Amino acid sequence: MLHLKCLIKALTGYNCPFCGFQRSVLALIRGDFVDAFYYNPFIYIISPYLLLLVLCVIGIIPQDSKLYKVLYGRWSISAAAIATIAWTIFRNIYHC
Question: What is the 8-class DSSP label of residue 84?
Answer without folding.
Answer: H
